[in-house]
Amino acid sequence: MKTFLSTLLFLTISHLALAQVRQLEADQEPGKGKVEDLHWLAGFWSGTGLGGECEEAWMPAKDGHMIGTFRFWSEGELVFSEFMNFVQEGESVSLKLKHFNPDLSGWEEKEKWTTFRLIALGENIAWFHGLTYERKGDELIIHLALTEKGERRIEEFRFVRKEL
């Protein structure tokens, strides 16, 4: 009985964690929305994720783009940074980003980037394929689906809005 309850609890928690991130099916059309609908992300955010410290900054939307940066450091050393761009693509929005090492050498090839396609927008929440942004007051919570060594997991980032 104890094993059954433990298994049930594990499956329930796993299901809830995976439900925080949605996926588009291969033939599924992306959701509709405008870059300007993500205005609630604008600002400077500081917090934790990936076992270290993180910062994310977003500028207001302009001309179908909303530009942001991210940096992650562990034990006082910069590990990597990202340049991010929410891009208007017809009636939908995609998040395109590139990763950089501390010396600014890129992870992606010159003409390539990592892309998250929109699934749906809600009030202060945005679901992208494998990535969810949610704002609760002055807190920003990001859930990111990662696959490492064949294992899928959800990484949670927790940020608080900061003044510069």
Labels describing this entry:
164 residues, mainly beta, Lipocalin, 10-stranded antiparallel barrel, 1 helix, 10 strands, disordered N terminus, DUF6265 domain-containing protein, signal, DUF6265
Question: Could you explain the architecture of this structure?
Answer:
- By secondary structure, the protein is mainly β.
- Helices cover 11% and strands 53% of the residues.
- The protein has one domain (2-162): Lipocalin.
- It contains one helix and ten strands; from the N terminus they run αββββββββββ.
- The chain has a ten-stranded antiparallel barrel.
- It starts with a helix and ends with a strand.
- Residues 39-144 form the DUF6265 domain.
- Pfam families: DUF6265 (PF19780).
- It comes from Algoriphagus oliviformis.
- Keywords: Signal.
Helices and strands in order:
Layout: H1 2-19, E1 43-49, E2 52-58, E3 65-74, E4 77-89, E5 92-100, E6 114-122, E7 125-128, E8 131-136, E9 139-148, E10 151-162
Order of strands across the main sheet: 1-2-3-4-5-6-7-8-9-10
C-alpha termini separation: 54 Å
Assign the CATH architecture: Beta Barrel
Run of helices and strands: HEEEEEEEEEE
> Which range does the strand content fall in?
over 45%
Largest sheet: 10 strands, antiparallel, barrel
Q: Unreliable runs, pLDDT <50, ≥5 residues?
A: 1-18
At the fold tier of CATH, the topology name is Lipocalin
CA radius of gyration: 17 Å
- What do the pLDDT scores average to? 88
Cα shape: globular
Structural class given helices, strands, pairing?
mainly beta
H/I helix tally: 1
Total domain units? 1
